[in-house]
Amino acid sequence: MTQEQAAAGVRTEQEIASQPDCWRRAAGLAGDVAGLLPARGERVAVVGCGTSWFIAQSYAAAREESGQGETDAFTASEMPLGRRYDRTLFLSRSGTTTEIKEAAERVRGASPTVAITTDAQTPVGLAVDEVIELAFADEESVVQTRFATTELAFLRAHLGVDIEPSARAAERVLAEPLPAELLAARQFTFLGTGWTYGLANEAALKLREAAGMWTESYPAMEYRHGPAAVTGEGSVVWLFGQPPAGLADDITLAGGLAWGADEDPMAALVRVHLVALAKARAAGLDPDRPRNLTRSVILAAAEPGRTS
Prior knowledge:
By secondary structure, the protein is an alpha/beta fold.
């Protein structure tokens, strides 16, 4: 690896490494702002774009699995209007994403609205009733790593999950060398069940964003319904959480490598971050400044008769 390749993604590398400490800090904060977060029994909508949408998926499934209430996750542009909720939660690192701001403005007054972001004095922060700031987890990089996982740690802690085991598992991942078979892979398929399906979606996005790789993600049981066709030599099928019976054997028979089933899901996502960083550097890309991406999607107002 050249000096230039090693220097690429330095900010991203630092942000990846800081995740366990950020998770612990977020878990400690969860009790302080519990009154702003969904109460047990409330019907809740969680809204985000890109990474934030996938974290919304993960939290929504985790909340329902914990028996705390019906929870729907939407990408902001597809959020249905007129559906009744007791609380709507908006997730946005920058607080400037146009679709999030507009969705918050559309539903304000129908139910209490809360944003989790890095700065209350942003368009999203000003469009909701209450704001929870996680400024300590903000990032300089375009590709989200620590803010997304810190947000999830915060929300899981509010559900009563002990985040310390995940933080310790992530520290072990950060201390280990990356397995050669992951670095050599040509294609990744990520699978999850329940709350880890959102993590599978997020994992696939990270490798696409940072390294421009071919990646896919599905609910684990959907793998046999078509996605198995892309598995072969050089394929990694990365399992978040325990896979359905027989699935790992099916992956092996197809010629792929089944990976990660026994790993803490949040720690596994940190390993994906490290793989994305390494793959980007090997391809001569800088994950601090990925191709065709900006830190926030801010859309210009459309002129009459034209689409922005």
